[in-house]
Amino acid sequence: MTKRKGAAIADAPHTAIVKDMTRLSLSPNAKQKNVVFQEEWQSTLDRMADLMEAHQNSSVLQTVEQCLVVNAQMEEKVDDSMHTAAEIKNRIKKEIQIAEEACRN
Fold first, then answer.
1. Domain of life of the organism in this record (predicted)?
2. In a domain, 10, yes or no
3. Dihedrals φ, ψ of 21, to 5°?
4. List of residues 6+ apart from 88 with CB closer than 8 A
5. Is residue 58 assigned to a domain?
6. Is residue 67 part of a domain?
7. pTM, to two decimals
8. What is the pLDDT of residues 47-94, one digit of tens each?
9. Which domain does 58 fall in, by range?
10. How many domains does the chain have?
């Protein structure tokens, strides 16, 4: 059984991570930054770093990074008063750097 190319991309591991990050960033808990949100957010970032380390493929890294930047930009549009979008971008960049360094080692 063959899959359409689009379906294969939709099933890619980074797609689930981006969906989780989108859901979390738009959650009412994002504004409160409560403990449950922080734990789930960190878990999602850890999954992203693991995925990048496992693939060691620059195109995968670029795809994930682009998706996450778009996600952060989307959150800015949802509520300009939230400061989490900038924090998310910085955290994403940091996690990507950590993952890239791990891939090199």
1. Eukaryota
2. no
3. -65, -40
4. 21, 25, 68, 71, 72, 75
5. yes
6. yes
7. 0.40
8. 777 776 776 666 666 766 776 776 666 655 555 544 555 666 677 777
9. 35-105
10. 1
